[in-house]
Amino acid sequence: MKTFLGVIALAAACVVPAHAQDFSKVEIKTTRLGDTLYMLRGAGGNIAVSAGEDTVFIVDDQFAPLTPKIAAAIREISPKPVQFVLNTHWHGDHTGGNENLGKAGAIIFAHENVRKRLSTDQFIDLIKSKEKPLAKVGLPVVTFDSSISFHVNGEEIRVVHAPRAHTDGDAIVHFDGSDVVHMGDIFWNGAYPFIDYSSGGSISGVIAACDRVLAMTTDKTRFIPGHGPLGARAELKAYRDMLVAISARVQKAIADGRTDEEIVKLGPSKDFDEKFGKGYLNGDKFVGSIAAGMRNSGS
After folding, report:
1. Assign residue 153 a region: left if phi > 0, alpha if psi is -120 to 50, beta otherwise?
2. Could you state, in order of their start, the residue ranges of all structural domains in the chain?
């Protein structure tokens, strides 16, 4: 039950604007994953922290009001300031702290599409939310197209772009020495994912990204999801298989000429709802969003 409640809270935080939330009671929880690697959970996307002899490198930074709490949690790990920030995609529950950290001197990295979206007005169709651009100080300073690598704190951190997955700017981050992968919102551990078709995402891209990660990892690898608890390979595989099954059922229904409403009534997620349908998106909402997205984009 605790795992599901945690997923629900984190998933809800993903889709509620920062100004509408009360962050006063949010606690930042730290999990040590290795000699230099940690995972932070609070409200919004999970954070990875690499802190060692060289520097402090973090993946994602949650909401702006949480920056002081996140900074305090990082100070418990290392006295060094955050030097590098990598955004896994553009959504505010993963990039909300960019401006605060940029003002403090951190260098922000992301896929080139993340900078494009963070620097212009955006609209998230699923939640009908208009998003304003970040100030210049919060924008990625260094962008990449297909991949980039960092060599810090005794390991290589390999970052690769996952095309048209959760959005059009997703990054998969492999801490090679620690054998940990941060997947951003490509992976929601224990919940149906929010796939942002209005930002160039697709269920086929999420499945392809999961296949790519499974092919480059082993049973010993641990996975930091965008939302939910730290995952194992079996959980990522079960998540991927669920997406494949539901995607195939929805595709067939579209080919059969069913409307989105009819597809939802068919219940193509029914056998997965108990396991994955207790987050922000229940089975019907997930199927409806996928049907509409697939119909409009073809994937």
Report:
1. left
2. 2-240
C-beta of residue 211 within 8 angstroms of C-beta of residue 249 = no
For the stretch 104-163, pLDDT in tens is 999 999 999 999 999 999 999 999 999 999 999 999 999 999 999 999 999 999 999 999
Secondary structure of residue 170 in the 3-state scheme: strand
What is the largest distance, in Å, between two alpha-carbon atoms of the chain? 60
- Measuring CA to CA, which residue among 74, 133, 132 is closest to residue 106? 74
The pTM of the whole model exceeds 0.90: yes
Provide the mean pLDDT of the chain: 94
Q: What is the DSSP letter of 220?
A: T
Rounded to an integer, what distance in angstroms lies between the CA atom of residue 277 and that of residue 274?
A: 6
Residue 20's pLDDT is: 56
Residue with tokens 């290589």: 156
3-class state of residue 16 by DSSP: coil
Q: Helix or strand or coil: residue 46? A: coil
The answer to whether 263 touches 287, Cβ cutoff 8 Å, is yes
Tell me whether residue 29 is exposed, middle or buried, using C-beta atoms within 10 angstroms of its C-beta: 0 to 12, 13 to 18, 19 or more.
exposed
Strand locations in the chain, DSSP E?
29-32, 37-41, 47-51, 56-59, 82-86, 107-111, 122-124, 129-131, 142-144, 147-152, 155-162, 170-175, 180-182, 222-224
284, pLDDT greater than 60: yes
Cβ atoms within 10 Å, residue 234: 9
Instruction: Summarize pLDDT for 78-113 with one digit per residue, the tens.
Output: 999 999 999 999 999 999 999 999 999 999 999 999
CATH code for the domain defined by 2-240: 3.60.15.10
